[in-house]
Model the fold of this input.
Amino acid sequence: MDTISFMLNGVQTQIEADKNWTLLYVLREVCDLTGTKCGCSTGDCGACKIILDGVAKNACLIKIGALEGRRLETIEGLYCDGKLHPIQQAFIESGAIQCGFCTPGMIISAKALLDANPNPTDDEIIKALSNNLCRCTGYVKIIEAVRMAARLLAE
Ligand code: FES
Ligand code: FES
Done:
């Protein structure tokens, strides 16, 4: 086993894990953070999105050994002081959630986008979500939700 230290949702964290385990496996099975979903394990669906040093990435493609000294945000980090994050609120209010399996990954991709670009165009939203698959919604409501989130965050 290896000791790996990193910032997890704003908290300095140290874990024992095989450095070759995937970040997705460690989040779900070691850290008990099951909001990050596994849809494919091959980098194709975006259900496992996390934000690493400000950039949305697929946790299924990252080895935990690469986390040393880095800053990680997961979907669990968005809920704060008993309140949903404005992006989570916007997804609910826009009807952008059906089965919900893709939703954590969608919200994480949206957060990485809006952190870097608070007022994105529709094309920029579509590009930022292009690695997130949804089998239920048809994407229209999801794009509306990101637009609404940008408005809520600006207020
Ligand atoms: S589980 Fe990682 S991209 Fe699908
Ligand atoms: S809401 Fe079901 S996969 Fe997107």
In short: DSSP finds five helices and five strands in the chain.
